[in-house]
Design brief:
Uracil-DNA Glycosylase, subunit E; 7-stranded mixed beta sheet; 12 helices; binds uracil
Amino acid sequence: MTIDNGDAGQRLCRAIRQELESLGRSGVTHWNTEITQLLPLLASPAVAPVEPTRIQAATSENPPRTGPNNTGPKNTGHPSGAQEFEMAKRATKTAAIQMAAPGTVGAATPPKLLDLPLADRVKQLEKLQKCVAGCVKCPELARTRTQTVFGVGNPQAKIMFLGEAPGADEDATGVPFVGKAGQLLDGIIAACKLQREEIYICNILRCRPPGNRLPSPEEAGNCREWLDGQIAIVNPDYIICWGSTAAKNLLGTTEAIGKLRGQLFEYGRAKVCCTYHPSYLLRNPPAKKDVWQDMKWFFGTMGVELK
Ligand code: URA
């Protein structure tokens, strides 16, 4: 990832970097750990391709974890969308998804991960969010957005949710997944015995594409450094890609989402699972049972049984 390209957000990042370097040079040693960890994020060279690899689900040699956040599953209330998803759950057959045979995935490069204490994660996310707010790398998106939609959630989340791009509601509020698709996602989160605050939620794009069109490859590429920055700081164990835009862009694959389901991939140290986007479920409700099947399988790989 590189932040040295010349627009307003990047100028801010460059200024932060110069400031950190100069503090480091003038012997501010109590910042040095942070500087050491932050500098590669702000100015690491352009990335070389790495192929994401499939990994096995939990086995006896690869023991399961006790819960998605090391705290075991939690009971939550049922927000909007939960009831709808409960119905889909009841329609789900119990058959396990098979691990698919390896296919072809393209090039994608994970960022260098940062292993920061909570306070530093909060600080770094805030800094990155400021850079994002000033980003004008995609002129059409910068011109038409109300605001950027950075991401929300636990800076120490074990699970990151990755969507496509903000829609009208997200553009209006600055928060990802708050519209109809977000309400359905809330139902899925509740069905998985999680709370929104436990996970970290962001998108491939941080600006709404006009008319909710698909992000162009160029826009996804422009936004990648922000996504990789968030992944580097949050350093999740798991990433769930909601829909093919998330899966294709994160993993650099052209495989259809239907082919990617039921497999775990690696992105850096994160294990990646792909399933249908909640917007697709709104258009195609019978697919909700497939997503529930995916969730049961995915949490099963962590040793968490969903019912
Ligand atoms: N769809 C997405 O992919 N992301 C959002 O934030 C909202 C809808």
